[in-house]
Write a structure and sequence with these properties.
There is one protein chain. It is built from two helices and 30 strands. It folds into two domains: about 35-110, Elongation Factor Tu (Ef-tu), domain 3 (Beta Barrel), CATH 2.40.30.20; about 115-380, no CATH class. The chain is about 5% helix and about 40% strand. A hairpin with an 8-residue loop joins strand 5 (about 65-70) and strand 6. It has helices at about 25-35, 250-255, and strands spanning about 5-10, 35-40, 45-50, 50-55, 65-70, 80-90, 90-95, 100-105, 110, 115-125, 125-130, 140-145, 150-160, 165-170, 180, 195-200, 200-205, 220-225, 225-230, 235-240, 270, 280-285, 305, 320-325, 330, 335, 340, 350-355, 365-370, 375-380.
């Protein structure tokens, strides 16, 4: 089973805290992209019938469908990244192969596995992150987390230090401060609910940026490589996000940029260059259908199809495509799906959809969106590329 795709959540024990404090987003990204978190020593690891059960003396940080990083175990085949099959209050399980039934020995550590990135440069509440995957475009994300309630983000083709780079997207002329990823509507230490969906070439950052909210309806933004329609596309890296701070404003623009766009008057983000390698930073748009691409609270009104389908009782999903008005369809966002169906009244964040047909073998994790009250779906088990 692949472990490239990873889900991280603020609900995990030992997870970094996101709040209205300068530097908190960098702390989150350090943990989920680079370092992992929640390291604990297991009391025992028992293998039986090709399943390993890892037990602790107290609660642990793993979640079902997440990825654990095991070290220090004998036999060595138990070490490395492992997809979590199930969890209890003080244990979790993962599949094994070729290991006889036994109790492992050694000082065995388990933590939440990071996505496989590196922190290229850092400064006071500044950070530059880069993908290590050789298949990636190699472009980097600069995060300026000096503000309490939001961070400014900008992609670069390359950087030589935390503040110097070439090939920015967006350029300063396009968006002076860089795109905005909000953290909280309040400059305080109050914890904000968040989730990150990632692989080793891109990640989706999601948070409910209104501190008083008790239900999870979040913004979602992306940095990383798309699945390009061009077979060799070294510039297929995008960054989404609004051009102004939207934390707590309750606007569609701030909470769902790149996912709740149904006309070309709102830019979803920027891609590093045109498909021919020319032009520098270009505005991009993200679409799922010719009608609004997320579901609404209003039943089957406003042009949405009813859920479940009146034809076959199904849920219909669409790959969101990345579009440049003068350059056509560049490719698709990886690992995420939209629906033209009105299913907000039936599905909420954390609901799992087991796929069949073209989606056989996929488990899709439901994510509620913000002011438009839509939902999208993340593939949290399969490779995105």
């Amino acid at each position: 089973m692949s472990t490239k795709t990873k889900l991280f959540s603020s609900t995990q024990a030992g997870a970094p805290v996101l709040n209205g404090v300068a530097g908190s987003l960098i702390g989150l990204l350090d943990a989920v992209l680079v370092n992992g978190f929640g390291s604990q020593t297991a009391t025992d690891v028992v293998v039986a019938s090709n399943v390993a059960t890892v037990t602790f003396g107290s609660s642990h940080s793993q979640i079902q469908h997440g990825v654990a990083l095991i070290s220090g175990a004998t036999p060595a085949g138990l070490n490395g990244e492992k997809r979590v099959l199930s969890v209890t209050a003080n244990s979790f399980t993962f599949a094994t192969s070729g290991i006889t039934d036994q109790t492992a020995t050694g000082t065995i550590l388990a933590k939440v596995a990071p996505a496989g990135w590196t922190k290229l440069f850092s400064g006071t509440n500044l950070a530059v992150y880069q993908r290590l995957a050789p298949e990636s475009t190699g472009m980097v994300l600069r995060v300026d987390d000096t503000n309490a309630t939001y961070a400014n983000v900008r992609g670069y083709e390359s950087m030589t230090d935390v503040s110097t780079g070439v090939g920015p997207f967006p350029t300063v002329a396009q968006v002076a401060a860089g795109r905005f990823w909000s953290k909280s509507n309040t400059a305080s230490a109050g914890a904000i609910i968040w989730k990150v969906y990632a692989d080793d070439r891109g990640f989706y950052y999601s948070c409910d940026n209104i501190l008083s909210n008790t239900s999870y309806r979040a913004q979602v933004h992306y940095f990383g490589d798309i699945n390009s329609n061009k077979s060799n596309d070294p510039y297929a890296c995008i960054l989404t996000g609004p051009p102004t701070n939207q934390a707590g404003t309750g606007t569609t623009l701030g909470e769902c940029i790149g996912f709740n766009i149904w006309d070309e008057s709102i830019i979803s983000g920027n891609i590093s260059r045109l498909s021919n390698g020319l032009g520098g930073s270009q505005p991009i748009y993200v679409y799922g259908t010719t009608t609004p691409i997320t579901s609404d609270t209003s039943g089957s009104n406003n042009g949405f199809y009813p859920y479940p389908s009146l034809v076959d009782n199904g849920l219909y999903l669409i790959k969101p495509f990345v579009y440049r008005k003068s350059n056509g369809f560049r490719g698709y966002l990886p690992g995420v799906f939209f629906t033209p169906m009105s299913c907000t009244l039936y599905l909420d964040t954390g609901d799992m959809i087991t796929g069949d047909g073209d989606f056989a073998g996929k488990n899709l994790y439901t994510q509620s969106l913000g002011q438009r009250n839509g939902v999208i779906f993340f593939d949290i088990l399969s490779d995105w590329r």
